[in-house]
Amino acid sequence: MRVKKLIKWGKKYWYLIFTVFFLTATLQLLYSYLPIFIQYGINVLSNEDVSNVNFPKPYLEFLAKQTDTITIIIILGVSMISLQLVRSFMRFTDSYLKGRITENISKDMRLELYDHITDLSYTYHNNVDTGDLIQRCTSDIDTSCGFISNRFPEIVNIIATVLSGAYQVGRINFTLMLISLIIMPITIISSIIYFRYVNRKFQEIEEAESQMMTVIQENLAGARVVRAFANEQYEIEKLEEKNSDYSKKNGRFNTMMAIYWGSSDFLVFAQYSLTMLVGVYFAQKGIIQTADLIACLMLMGMLIWPFRGLGRIIADFGITLVAIDRIEEVLDIKSEFTEDNLTKPKISGEIEFKNVGFKFSDDNKPVLKDINFKIKKGEMIAFVGKTGSGKSTIVNLITRLLENTEGQILIDGVDLKSIDKRHIRRNVGMVLQDPFLFSKTVYENIAIANRHASDEEIYEAARLACIDEDIKGFEKGYDTIVGEKGTTLSGGQKQRIAIARILVNKRPIVIFDDSLSAVDTKTDLSIRTSLKNAQSDMTMIIITHRTTTAKEADRIIVLEDGMISEIGTHEELSHKEGLYKDLWDVQGRLEEKFMELIGGEKHE
């Protein structure tokens, strides 16, 4: 079964693989004739019988017609050079095709694995280690592809080499051939034992390397956080622990490998010595000619050394099976886009929750309980609540990143679970608290959600998000390259660029998940005013901890402990005892003072 997983990736390129197999086998067969040229030449120079030399009959007849020894030697030399030229061309073709196979299979595996990973659920990505996934997409794929394109042909190479060598030695002396093959059973048995060890130990090594890679990836991604807390020494010690564990396991594996290779070398040289001694004895007794002995010793490597290479293939096979299992483990995880016959209705922006509940599969405590509300098309709704009250869970349910475990969610009267996930996400825009920006220009980061947007639409979206002036202040304006993840920008600038990115896409439903948390109060007021004016028929959902942001909404929904405790307008809730009033009494006074400072109006 595990081998089938490996072979399936090469099926698409079977014609290239079989061509490589053919070239590999032919190369070894042709190589086996090189010592025969030496055998024939020595026999000619020694005036020995050449009738037993294993050349093709037409070639033997051609040489027999030659009477001059020098002419025969020249013919043999030219023939050897010609044979080597043919082998060189075949070797080049063989290497080229192996390269093509490796790159083609690598490309296919990377694309399929990456495509599948992007289709896996939000829950999976929340729980998986990024470093481990990176390792599966890189080193595991390289290991698997290298075995398919190089080690599989090498198996053919070993078989072809041994058969070609045995054929040629057997034609000279059958007993010498049998003696040369004595090592075969010992090598095969030791290789099987070694394979079992490798298969078990390399799994441990892969896991240790994965943990080390995760630590490295986390530290590179969170470099600013590590420095902000002066936590470098702790992270270095954490990496040292994982690195030491990986090194120890790898070291034990290398020790076993050294023992295996040392033992293999001893067996090979012992076998070579035995064959040589018997061959010399046969030559002394006149059983074989001196030229036959020289040819046999030259061919002996084709019978003995390939079995030493078998151990390397066996080791790589064990490593490859672990790597392919890790790749297939990810591919076997069910995609979140497996449902059939889902609808793609026109989305206008009406949302209704009916007795909705949600809890994670590994937790008995519900995150949401009995949630009921209705949002009309074009409304601006704010969700307010303490951390952990379930605000973000609600927006994740709307986008089907999570699936409600109870009740029903309707989008324009259609059950959300019957709507295609990609379709609903194309119609719902989200701005997160910590948005991700690509290492591109500011313009490209805004336009990435709508590649057909005009320059004016890009600039207008930036103005609505109150980021236009900041961008114009950059040295290269909209052509300024932002760093990886937008690290060259402030938190507020990143959030406003993300808002502009959503506005330029013009989706019927837009969700702001605490996406104004990093901007100052004045900018917050400006953005809210711009959004209110530009809202028209777009449904807006705002997740926020700021009551000053929530008060601009048409209605406010207050969440406490996964349940709705209050629903109403700012005027209603700010005068009604409850969580919202408590928050407003604190935050509202701050806004009053701020408005006084900037000459604004006090709230009533």
List the helices and strands and how they pair.
Layout: H1 2-8, H2 14-31, H3 34-45, H4 57-64, H5 69-118, H6 122-127, H7 130-137, H8 139-172, H9 174-180, H10 183-221, H11 223-228, H12 232-284, H13 290-331, E1 351-358, E2 368-375, E3 380-385, H14 391-398, E4 406-411, E5 414-415, H15 421-426, E6 428-431, H16 442-447, H17 455-464, H18 468-473, H19 491-503, E7 509-513, H20 521-534, E8 539-544, H21 547-550, E9 555-560, E10 563-568, H22 570-573, H23 579-598
Parallel strand pairs: 3-8, 3-9, 6-7, 7-8
Antiparallel strand pairs: 1-2, 1-4, 4-5, 9-10
Comma- or semicolon-separated keywords:
four-stranded antiparallel β-sheet; 63% helix; alpha/beta; 604 residues; elongated; disordered C terminus
Task: Please tell me about this protein's structure.
The protein is an alpha/beta fold and 604 residues long. The longest helix has 53 residues, at 232-284. Mean pLDDT is 82; it is low at 600-604. Helix content is 63%, strand content 9%. Helix 8 runs antiparallel to helix 13.
Query: What is the number of strand segments?
Result: 10
- Give the strand order of the largest sheet, numbering strands 1, 2, ... along the chain: 6-7-8-3-9-10
Structural class: alpha/beta
CA gyration radius, whole angstroms: 37 Å
Mean pLDDT: 82
Q: What summary fits the major beta sheet?
A: 6 strands, mixed
Shape: elongated
Low-confidence stretches: 600-604
Distance between the termini: 73 Å
> What percent of residues are in strands?
5-15%
DSSP helix count? 23
Helix proportion of residues, in percent? 55-70%
